[in-house]
Task: structure prediction
Amino acid sequence: MIARYLTYSALFALSCAVFSSAQGAVYDEADAGDFSNSGLSPTVLHLGLGSNFISGSTGSGAGPAGIDPDYFSITVPSRAVLSSLTVLPGTTVGGDVTFIGVQVGPQVTVSPDATDATGLLGWMHYGPGNVNRNILPRIGPGSEGATGFTGPLGPATYSFWVQDTAGGTVPYNYDLVLTAAVAVPEPTTLATLTVGLVFLIAGLRITCVGNRRA
Result:
């Protein structure tokens, strides 16, 4: 069982390394068109292990009610986690900050006119000082009704909402990184290892005592 576990872990790590090296740009509005402006039908993105670059723009103008909110959804697969969301250079804000929020599931059901963040998993306002920083830990704390979370986001579907109400075009660039979840031995494997270590230590003690008596 131990050998099988180690073999599986090695093969999984190798596949992750190969897959990771193939990742890069996932969606660029300049080439693929505007992200969805509806939280009920976000643009579906397919991420792979490693870095996943996303580029878009928000701001006032093209969207409903005079603004251009962007919505996209991702699915974190089994045995993986969303470990970071980094704001990349080229990102600007229209005023002081830009809003980003995330909700569990394939939709963002929270209205832009909502008076609090009830329904969201987390959110934050980021500014120029957040460029080149992983903002996932800043999105996590629950406030104003948001559920909140800590650490990486595990396997599930998540929908993101990006919005800046300032006039003009406000570009953003993100790197969403998926990493392989750390595999842990099953309880029976841990028990087997523990028993083996006990007998090993006992054998060493007997050997040492025998050597001293000789």
Remarks:
- The CA atoms of residues 54 and 102 lie 15 Å apart.
